[in-house]
Amino acid sequence: AAACAEGPSEDSKAKGKVSRSSRAGLLFPVSRIDRLLRRGRFAKHFGAAAPTYLAAVLQCVAQHTVEVAGKISKESKRQRISPRHLQLAAQSSLELKQLLRGAPRCWGSAVPHSQLVASPWNQKKRKSEKR
């Protein structure tokens, strides 16, 4: 059990079983990005460091987005980050707004959250619940 907590053993390091992501100190998968770059045929050739650099950039953008969305969710007194928080983060941060300027939007524009107004329908429902 103690060997599992320490990470890969020295034998696996000697065999070259360390991933490119862990060598670069990243969480995003460098090998998967490399494979997708090759399959996508974006260019005839690209350097060996290109997928590592792209993985680092994607991880940085994701980290910044989640960080801003986390602050927004704390302001709205929520425990979890929802898609709405991510959308508000992309709209509130100037860097993210410029980066995502040409990206298609999956949902409508964010409308600030409004409180429920006492409408006749809500009042009728409340009266019937009290009975």
UniProtKB/TrEMBL annotation:
<keyword id="KW-0544">Nucleosome core</keyword>
<comment type="similarity">
    <text>Belongs to the histone H2A family.</text>
</comment>
<keyword id="KW-0238">DNA-binding</keyword>
<dbReference type="InterPro" id="IPR032458">
    <property type="entry name" value="Histone_H2A_CS"/>
</dbReference>
<keyword id="KW-0539">Nucleus</keyword>
<keyword id="KW-0007">Acetylation</keyword>
<dbReference type="GO" id="GO:0003677">
    <property type="term" value="F:DNA binding"/>
</dbReference>
<comment type="subunit">
    <text>The nucleosome is a histone octamer containing two molecules each of H2A, H2B, H3 and H4 assembled in one H3-H4 heterotetramer and two H2A-H2B heterodimers. The octamer wraps approximately 147 bp of DNA.</text>
</comment>
<dbReference type="GO" id="GO:0005634">
    <property type="term" value="C:nucleus"/>
</dbReference>
<protein>
    <recommendedName>
        <fullName>Histone H2A</fullName>
    </recommendedName>
</protein>
<dbReference type="GO" id="GO:0030527">
    <property type="term" value="F:structural constituent of chromatin"/>
</dbReference>
<dbReference type="GO" id="GO:0000786">
    <property type="term" value="C:nucleosome"/>
</dbReference>
<dbReference type="InterPro" id="IPR009072">
    <property type="entry name" value="Histone-fold"/>
</dbReference>
<dbReference type="InterPro" id="IPR007125">
    <property type="entry name" value="H2A/H2B/H3"/>
</dbReference>
<feature type="domain" description="Core Histone H2A/H2B/H3">
    <location>
        <begin position="9"/>
        <end position="91"/>
    </location>
</feature>
<keyword id="KW-0158">Chromosome</keyword>
<dbReference type="GO" id="GO:0046982">
    <property type="term" value="F:protein heterodimerization activity"/>
</dbReference>
<dbReference type="Pfam" id="PF00125">
    <property type="entry name" value="Histone"/>
</dbReference>
<dbReference type="InterPro" id="IPR002119">
    <property type="entry name" value="Histone_H2A"/>
</dbReference>
